[in-house]
Design a protein that fits this description.
Elements: H1 5-23, H2 32-52, H3 56-63, H4 67-74, H5 82-92, H6 103-117
Helix pairs in contact: 3-5
Length: 131
């Protein structure tokens, strides 16, 4: 039995694992605009659900999404797929576009955040979306 082969095999396996890690792209850090977009979807979902007078449980039953997932989406922590948004919109009897924020509103909010961090005196109304 050749005991010198074991260290070589270990080295080959270690090199192969290192190469595999190098090929995998690093996960991109979640950007602030992604969080703002997810938060805006959550606010629109909560507002639409409230307008329909539906509880989260009722919406979960009608859409096929779990209550927990709906809570994550409404809090801005969830990242719903288009299919999930479509099933939620169908359950709320609204077009899916009503669950998607307008991009100009997000840009205005980002600009307001930047101006407040730089000391600008402009104020916002605090409303993310017109009612």
């Amino acid at each position: 039995m050749n005991y010198n082969a074991c260290p070589q095999r270990f080295l080959v396996v270690a090199i192969a694992k290192a190469k595999m890690k190098m090929r995998q792209p690093a996960a991109a850090p979640q950007r602030d605009d992604h969080r703002a977009f997810a938060g805006a979807i959550g606010r629109l979902l909560r507002l639409s659900r409230a307008k329909r007078g539906m509880t989260r449980r009722q919406l979960a039953h009608a859409s096929g999404a779990s209550e927990r997932y709906l809570a994550q989406i409404e809090s801005g922590q969830g990242n719903p797929s288009v299919i999930i948004l479509e099933s939620i919109a169908r359950a709320l009897d609204i077009p899916i576009i009503e669950l998607l924020p307008r991009s100009n509103v997000l840009r205005m909010r980002s600009a307001a955040r930047l101006s407040s961090s730089t000391g600008s005196s402009s104020r916002t109304t605090g409303r993310a979306f017109p009612i």
